[in-house]
Amino acid sequence: MLAQCAADFHGRKDRYNRFIKAYEDRSPDVIFLAGDMGHAEPDIFESIEVPIYAVHGNIDGTLEHLRGKITFIDGKNIEHRGYMILGVGNTYPGRISERIDVILSHIPPFGIMDRAFFGMHIGSKWLREMVAESKPQYVICGHVHEDAGYEYIDDTCVINCSVGKRGTCTFVDFTHGTVEMVGYK
Predict the structure, then answer these.
(1) CATH code of the domain containing 123
(2) How many domains does the chain have?
(3) Residue 148 Rama label (left phi>0; alpha psi -120 to 50; beta)
(4) Where are any strands of DSSP class E within 20-148?
(5) Residue-wise pLDDT tens for the chain (185 aa)?
(6) Host domain of residue 110
(7) This prediction's pTM
């Protein structure tokens, strides 16, 4: 399964356009959006023919106008192609499935991919504990524009896919266990 991931568009049409072009070039199986989408017209997603799962970021309102195009999974456990996915956005989950393969969160876990501009860690301690307990294969997050990239906590790959000023998106190949950051030079 090939996933295309991104966070922190902040309503910027140029960022969305780069993301859509990458989708058209690569044809992923699923899209994960880790919040801070900002204002986006629903037609921006018109060419996308795969499921789009997202969580809300700290600048997002209800994003009600995107519900026909995007499935918001804040506070939910869902299954997609055999993978159990936990959504952590503006709502923390009340119930957590026994197995978690992917955590889709706006905020990164504390101490990893969460170093803000002045070097301070601003991630979630709750999420860090959740990763230690559930040991998912992936945590897909954003929020901290200055720390885009990926790093491992034991066997869990934490991917900060914040597009920030330069990024386009991140492709995660679940089958082969590879991560490709596009446009982050």
Answers:
(1) 3.60.21.10
(2) 1
(3) beta
(4) 30-33, 52-54, 71-72, 77-80, 83-88, 102-105, 138-141
(5) 999 999 999 999 999 999 999 999 999 999 999 999 998 888 999 999 999 999 999 989 889 889 889 999 999 999 999 999 999 988 888 778 789 999 999 999 999 999 998 889 999 999 999 999 999 999 999 999 999 999 999 999 999 999 988 899 999 999 999 999 999 87
(6) 2-182
(7) 0.95
